[in-house]
């Protein structure tokens, strides 16, 4: 009996060892090129704007490993696989220390001391811009503020994981979407926003990303707008957004927040951040095709990146005006042919 029990025990141990040897241990997948990326985490990171479902200005950490890029904050995390990243860029600019709190402190300094203090109350902000597609193929662009050394580490890891990211031209290569509703259902009130093109002007990645994301957010709040589609977004069934908005940046002039703050009233006119762009609105029926030249400027002590929301506000106002005119010209009866729209009916609103 003892020998039999020992044999059963030996057989059990041998079988367990064989199974263990034949079952591979759980290992993270290698990057898309088969290169192993050493896990690394950077602290003191701020998500400035752009990550889905995460609030702007949230603070946290970023991690890069074989799986991709992950931002982790108090309200949650967002992971981006390497295969979904189309570009990673870095940049920097000087801004005032402590932001709004710093400006309040300077306002309390008497005898014009606040203006003098602005000349020294500043620091360099390092920007990391990550452009990617989500699970539905929709294009996103997120901007982060982080230590400069950390930005360089992420850039090196990304080019190891996806060598094509060495090419600085990413979103510029994306074709502006063309509405083709053949075999698809037209979604009334829906609008497709194409990524801004900047081939006519050199625009930092952080500004390009912020402009696109702010436009998406602002259009979602316009009355009468249904779903706002991103470039590349697809659904379960073929869908055709009723409208398309395309942005082409004509010119960009970088300003300097620190200089504006340290020159007093003169700063309202000097070193302003300026952007000129064409906004084109079209619809699936071909009744609407309007292009308007718009301008946005950041003056005073505002942060230069706020120009992105200035662009979005003007575009949202333009879109709301044209949408109202377009709907007013629609046929009263389903069998009635739509009234043709005159170009003069679509004017840029007073901005």
Describe the structure.
This protein has 351 residues and is an alpha+beta fold. It has two domains: 40-166, PH-domain like (Roll), CATH 2.30.29.30; 176-345, Double Stranded RNA Binding Domain, CATH 3.30.160. Helices cover 26% and strands 31% of the residues. It has seven helices and twelve strands. It has helices spanning 2-22, 100-107, 113-118, 148-161, 205-219, 257-262, 307-328; strands spanning 40-49, 58-64, 68-73, 76-81, 85-96, 122-133, 139-145, 185-193, 228-230, 239-253, 273-283, 289-298. The strands form two sheets. Strands 4-3-2-1-7-6-5 form a seven-stranded antiparallel beta sheet. Strand 8 (185-193), helix 5 (205-219) and strand 9 (228-230) form a beta-alpha-beta unit. Helix 5 (205-219) runs parallel beside helix 7. The longest helix is centred in the C-terminal third of the chain and has 22 residues, at 307-328. The termini are far apart. The model is unreliable at 1-27, 94-99, 101-123, 168-179 and 334-351 (pLDDT under 50).
